[in-house]
Write a structure and sequence with these properties.
mainly alpha
Length: 133
Amino acid sequence: MTVLATDATLQRLTTIRLGLLRQHKRLLEAERLAYENIHGRIPTSGAFLQLVIADPWFDWLHTISRLVVQIDERLDNKEPLRADEAKDFLDKAHLLLQPATDKASFQAHYEAVIQRDSAIALAHTELLKLLHP
């Protein structure tokens, strides 16, 4: 028997998705500034987009991008979200925000940005609260 996600779970997933999206935006800006400190000003938004897509400096951010896109695609699907799917997305978000176990991982890069940007650290704390109601 298929168990569908409850309205409360859908709302929670939507809220966490929005939090991840906002955090992604903050991370992009923080990494842009760090990149510009070393390489000089990025001249246009288009040039920045190309760097985000193709430059290894920004590769680690693709992890959070992919999760947000996966959630979006599933929520846009006409089929109702199953409870196990919602749990899987929530678990992935939780794992993404955990301390690093690998220096090359998303988490390691994320921890470094948290250490240097208090707004990102605060938003991280808020995301954890959403994941652990």
